[in-house]
Write a structure and sequence with these properties.
The chain is mainly alpha-helical and 107 residues long. The chain has two helices and no strands.
Length: 107
């Protein structure tokens, strides 16, 4: 009986492992951006009057009369005139002081 011997007794084998990455990592970001766009659209629709929150429909007139307000208006007008006079006096005093300072600086 003959015995066969292996020509390569070390049995060297090389294994190559390949790892392949594929795209698709942006799916979560796309969902997030899409959700934000929808939320902004809904808010815009609500703010611009797209949704009726149960407000009354139909025309109704509202008349408001406040009696005794003539005196208060006159008092307010007088106060505004007094304030305008005070501002005018302050402006004149400032202009006079500026002229005096300019004269002092020139001499």
């Amino acid at each position: 009986m003959s015995h066969q011997t292996d020509q390569n007794p070390n049995h060297d084998h090389t294994y190559i492992e390949r790892t392949e990455k594929r795209g698709g990592g942006g799916t979560g970001m796309a969902l997030l951006v899409g959700g934000l766009v929808v939320a902004v659209g809904v808010l815009f629709w609500v703010v611009t009057g797209g949704f009726d929150f149960g407000t009354a429909t139909g025309g109704s007139d509202v008349n408001v009369n406040v009696e005794g307000s003539e005196g208060a208006v006159n008092d307010a007008a007088g106060a505004v005139e007094d304030a305008a006079g005070a501002v005018e006096n302050a402006a004149e005093n400032t202009a006079g002081a500026a002229e005096e300072a300019a004269d002092d600086a020139a001499n």
